[in-house]
Write a structure and sequence with these properties.
This protein is mainly β and about 150 residues long. It has a single domain (about 10-145), classed as Pnp Oxidase, Chain A. About 5% of the residues lie in helices and about 50% in strands. The strands form two sheets. Strands 2-1-7-8-9-6-3 form a seven-stranded antiparallel β-sheet. Strands 4-5 form a two-stranded antiparallel ribbon. The longest helix is centred in the middle third of the chain and has 11 residues, at about 75-85. The two termini are about 15 Å apart.
Length: about 150
């Protein structure tokens, strides 16, 4: 029987050393995290002329974009680092690390990002809202999964 885990305690980090994958700076105020390790597998058509229904074979994985929402702090060094990855695309690639709180141990997914693909800028709807933004990073290559033990 599978266990259902809450998302509280999930963290996201970025390696600011551009590809070193050994020291991650945690990103504060993350409120949502989407598509870590995800992607789609391209399907090639294998239908013969005599076929009456299409057939396919799997080819290669296209990694998805990972998006994350944050309560944005323009004075926070990690938030500024990520914003600057969008302003200066040559700063990448960077390793990213998502860690899920799974009881006494953690499950992690480390992936290489080709750079920030989206920075939505600062957003707020009204006087009672917090300053926020959405970032997206394009995963490149296969992720590395470290499962809880």
């Amino acid at each position: 029987m599978a266990t259902v885990w809450g998302s509280q305690g999930t963290t996201l980090g970025v390696d600011e050393l551009s590809g070193a994958s050994n020291s991650f700076t945690l990103i504060s105020n993350v409120t949502s995290l989407t598509a870590v390790g995800g992607g789609s597998v391209t399907q090639a058509l294998t239908t013969a002329l005599a076929s009456t229904v299409h057939t396919f074979r799997a080819t290669i994985k296209k990694p998805s974009e990972v998006s994350f929402d944050v309560w944005y702090d323009p004075t926070d060094s990690a938030h500024k680092f990520i914003r600057n990855l969008c302003d200066t695309p040559s700063n990448g690639p960077n390793y990213w690390l998502a860690t899920y709180n799974t009881g006494n141990t953690n499950s992690t997914c480390q992936f290489l990002g080709s750079g920030i693909s989206t920075f939505d800028g600062y957003s707020t709807a009204d006087v009672e809202d917090n300053l926020m933004t959405t970032f997206a990073v394009q995963q490149t290559g296969l992720p590395t999964w470290v499962n809880a033990t």
